Amino acid sequence: MSRTAGQIIKCKAAVAWEAGKPLVIEEVEVAPPQAMEVRLKILYTSLCHTDVYFWEAKGQTPVFPRIFGHEAGGIVESVGEGVTDLSPGDHVLPVFTGECKDCAHCKSEESNMCSLLRINTDRGVMINDGKSRFSINGKPIFHFVGTSTFSEYTVVHVGCVAKINPEAPLDKVCVLSCGISTGLGATLNVAKPPKGSTVAVFGLGAVGLAAAEGARIAGASRIIGIDVNPKRFNEAKKFGVTEFVNPKDYDKPVQEVLSEITDGGVDRSIECTGNVDAMISAFECVHDGWGVAVLVGVPHKDAAFKTHPMNFLSERTLKGTFFGNYKPRSDLPSVVEKYMNKELELEKFITHEVSFTEINKAFDYMLQGDSLRCIIRMDA
Fold first, then answer.
1. Whether residue 178 lies in the annotated active site
2. Measured distance CA(82)–CA(365) in Å, rounded
3. Fewer C-beta within 10 Å: the chain N or C terminus?
4. Do residues 237 and 209 touch, judged by C-beta distance below 8 A?
5. How do residues 253-293 score in pLDDT, each as one tens digit?
């Protein structure tokens, strides 16, 4: 790969020209990395619901034409000035948020919300010079959350790249660069359920199932899945879910149902829907005295969380988390090792696989509710 260092690379990328329209495989030019940037050869990428959400652009700022994609695994092709901890040939996971290692957040043991590199969904350019590294016939194509992995090559800030074990299969561990780590970390790093505890998981999509996987790893004795789609219940058993509650089956708030079946409330709850009513239920269903609720889902911008202050005064705890409280560069390598040591099972999250030319099928699978994660093979 050294022969391409410092040169423009022409490659294939799936370009979203406008909101909600099928992606188009185009030949794009990818500029060399600038200071504190790396250029990656993407080998595998997967589709996350966040890609679909911003591709539809129903409630967000439309930034087009754009190259989406942010869950991926690849190899470093070349590095820009000032990059010292990555070299060509390194196996890596690009991440939608970063770790500059210099700001107050990065220096804090309690935070992973880097001041410089935290997610920015509206920015379509690199922070170094405010320009895109992608172009077609001289016209810029915008980036997405600093990663843009629906391209055979992409340029990413070094702080958003985690170097991992080169023995790890990239077609499996690529799913750790967003949703799976978010749910897993919400349980293991934030909720921290004691062994033998009862855990409720609201929302049984990929993130919620990853939260359930975390509860399984932690040794929870009961893992209760809450979802309005009964089709998800059978799949959830693979992730350690032992019981299911469909709020539609009851004429009372689901938090009351959970309190009744757990003798006063669950020990921990993790909310993975983004629905504010589910968030309130997740908090109010935890046991007084020691219950902890963790919010993962992103709510509507106008949503308001309302609960009685006595729910706090009776010693329930409400927490929020971003990317499962993992620092991308420092912590993701150890999550990969959990998979390598067979503590974490990733295969069961991967429900579909398509070639790069069939990338629109991945969108269809997700829109139809048929997939958890669809792996897109860039070389096929």
1. yes
2. 41
3. C
4. no
5. 999 999 999 999 999 999 999 999 999 999 999 999 999 99
114 catalytic per annotation = yes
pLDDT digits (tens, 9 = 90+) for 19-68: 999 999 999 999 999 999 999 999 999 999 999 999 999 877 899 999 99
User: Which domains can be identified in the chain, with CATH numbers?
Assistant: 9-22+52-58+73-179+325-377 (3.90.180.10), 180-324 (3.40.50.720)
Longest CA–CA separation in the chain, Å: 66
Catalytic residue among 50, 147, 154, 187: 50
Give Cα 240 to chain centroid, integer Å.
20
Which one from 48, 160, 272, 285 is the annotated catalytic residue? 48
Identify the CA nearest to 269 among candidates 306, 214, 228, 232.
214
To the query of whether residue 70 is one of the catalytic residues in this protein, the response is yes
Instruction: Check residue 324 and give left, alpha or beta (phi > 0: left; psi -120 to 50: alpha).
Output: left
User: Is residue 300 exposed (0-12), middle (13-18) or buried (19+ Cβ within 10 Å)?
Assistant: exposed
Whether omega before 230 lies within 30 degrees of 0, making that bond cis, reads no
Catalytic status, residue 11: no
| 340 touches 8 (CB < 8 A) | no
300 carries an active-site annotation: no
CA gap 335, 350 in Å, rounded: 17
**Active-site hit among 39, 45, 66, 71:** 71
Report how far residue 229's alpha carbon sits from residue 210's, in angstroms, rounded to the nearest whole number: 17
Rama region for 56: left / alpha / beta (φ>0; ψ in -120 to 50; rest): alpha
Annotated active-site residue 49? The verdict is yes
